[in-house]
User: Fold these one by one.
Assistant:
Number 1:
Amino acid sequence: MSGRSIVPRALPRTVRVLAALALATALTAGCSTPEPRVTGAAEEGDGLVRGEPAPSAASPFWVDPNSDAARQVRAWEKEGRDAEAKILRRISERPVADWPAWDDPAPGIRSAVRSAARTKKTVVLVAYNIPHRDCGLYSAGGAKDADAYRSWIGEFADAVGEAPATVILEPDALPHITDGCTPPEHHAERYQLLSDAVDTLKALPNTKVYLDAGNPDWIDEPAKMAQPLRQAGVERADGFSLNVSNFQSNDSVKTYAGQLSDAVGGSHFVIDTSRNGNGPLSGGR
């Protein structure tokens, strides 16, 4: 998350996606949950909790019944801590995405797919293992080389199989080319790996793929992202994603997304709205 966040990207993340302009799902990595302080106001007046209503059961996306948040809710309910449990259910009852393991993605994906199949829901996955990831900064790492990445994305796709899935492909990978953080000698390889990954994932019968395109406070001119998206194969994907793990407001991201969509032939887009309720920090990213 170089140059954009004071929080290391390696930390667990909660990401909610807005499909075009309509809220579609939530993306998250597993997270440990600190015990909240519950005020008297939270315990009174029907136990109302601030924020928008939790998604209904009509959501097409999978809710992990064994997420850290769900397990904590059950633990608090057993202890009679109903007020705390009610607050945490606003996390546990939202669809969440899996960020598959960087060494062996298949077991986690298969587990999610099996669970989702029992309720006939769609899993949301984030592929985040590109070589030279995050320019060696907070989330440094990724596959050791191009061959390792091709093998990893192949295992990723095989584990998804015919299950309905939505994949956010490689947060930061293209913006880091655009801002110059990724050295030029790695550009051609990265474009090829992303393009190949789009084809691998789109060969699956029920998978949607969105290439990540950063956020408007990072690459502030949408036109600068158009060519990188084209080179990575956005026309063969289902669209692009914006604001992953970031804090830019819905209004600013929607405006940016519309301009970028126009620049790449009207491509569909999804927006992460999980962290931006208060907008970005004043004077920072």
Note: The radius of gyration is 19 Å.
Number 2:
Amino acid sequence: MYFHQITRLNYDNMKNTSLHSIILFFAFACAGCSETPENVAPTPGDKFSTEAGTSALEPNPEGEESSDERVWGVYAGKLGLYGQEVAMELIITGNKVSGSYFYARHQKALQLDGTYNEASQKLQVTESYKGKATGYMEFTLLKGELNGFWMKKAGSTEKEDFQASLLPVDEKDYRVVHSVYENKHEMSFYNAEDSEVEMVSDVLKVSQLGKGLFTFYYSVVGGTGHLGSLDGLGETQNGKSTFELDECELQFVFNSTTAEVHETGDCQAFRGARAYFEGSLNKIR
């Protein structure tokens, strides 16, 4: 009986010791399982993630040095009192910011140069054209969204709102190609006594961004001088180029020398009663 008890105790001790050894073996074997491999670098998409609950650029914990990793992204959105369409390329390397943006209406690149604060996710940039400072912008970058303002210079009290969203365009595919189309036509203008006929122009400006995305600005002159203008971000899918905003919808057909525009939705909010976003335009550049 005593021998049986000793044998049983020894068996239990041996079982516990073996189990403990197995646990320790797997603990040491998997010590580095959760660590990121040193040779795998995060992609720009990781930094500019737009998934819910993630930040576009995650701030470093306090006390850690900022990374000098280069992060690239292109955005489209609205700027100014009248919400003009803009497209912006941003490059962030550590705490330095560079890039450019243009208005769909003007198609002129404005250079950007400034700083990025990783803790606050705030960008402060100076805008310039042909080497001359033309403005100042300050905005945050969070979850793939830019939100802030534009002003003539830092410290100005007059500010214009700015919002833009990250576009699904890779840097290798990003290439801005500007085109301008025009349709000259006669238009009758009436006054109290008679009518006058004048030559007027409808103008369409298109800037291709890559991956089928493009910005546009379209202005038209209709009967009795009714005007219309609209800008925005369009998309080409399966050979069909469209723009949609609430009930307003436009369809575009582009080729080497012309562009056709058809108003397939209700765009009255952006034009006079006798002006229509409709017609064929010739490419002039």
Note: The first strand starts at residue 70 and ends at 79.
